Homing endonuclease LAGLIDADG domain-containing protein (Ulva sp. UNA00071828), 256 residues
Amino acid sequence: MKINKSNKSINTEKVYEEFFLGLLEGDGSIQVNHWKKRSLQFRIIIKLKYTSANYAMCAQISQQLGIMNLHIRRGFVIMVEDHRVRLLRIMAIIDRHGLLLTHRRRQYAFFKYCYNNQITYSEYAHIKDLKKSWFFNSINAYDSDLLLQLSHWPNWLIGFTEAEGCFCIRSNGSHSFSISQKEGYEVLTAIKKTFKIPNKVRSTSRLYFLETYAGGVLQNICNFYSSPHVIGLLGEKQVQYKAFKVSLEKKKALPI
C-alpha cells in the first residue's frame, strides 16, 4: 500500500491529493442536504466495497491528508467528511487541482456557493427548484486534449481507476482492461488517448464504457500503472492489477 518512492522528486501529499480527487469523482458524492428544513448540512462521501485492501487505502488517504472519517457498514468502507474545518481542507484541494467530470464540477459549484454564502434553507430550496440551472451555464465539459495537459491527470486517473476501472482475467485466459462512468465521455476519451486504445468509447442508457483486449495496448496500460512517476494503485484494484500483470506476463512468455 505504499507509493513508488524510487522517484524522490514525488511530492507525497500532492500525489495523494490528486489520487483522492480521482477516487472522489469516481465513487464519491458532494452533498448539500437540509435538516428539517431549518439548516443545511454539508458532506463529502466516498463509498467503496469493503475489502482489507480498500480499507487500508482509505485509512492511508485519511492519515496522509488529515481528512475523512472512516466507517464500515453493510459490506462497504465509507469515507465521510462533514466537519466544517476539514471540509475547507477538501475544498482547498479541489480548488488547487480542479475536478474533471462535468457533473462533479457542477455539484461542487453548488456546494461551494451554499457553503461560502451560508445561504438559508429557502434559498437552497429555490435553487433546487430551478434545478441549479444558473450554476450550470458556465460549466461545460472539458475537451479531452485539455485534460491530457493537466499536471494532475496521471495521478487523478489512477484514483479514478480505483473507483471505475477493471483489470480482468477471463476464464478462457484472455485479458482485458475496462473503465466506465455515467457522465464522462470526455474523460473516457482522454483515457483512450492516454493508452492509445483503438476502440471507441461506447455508450448505453446508463453509462459510457471503454474496453480493450489488445496485447500492445494492455502493455501500455501496465507501463502506466507501474511507472515510478505516479502514485500507483493503492486499494483493491492494486490487488487485481498485480494478478492481472503476472498473468499477462506469463501468457506473453508462452511459446507461440
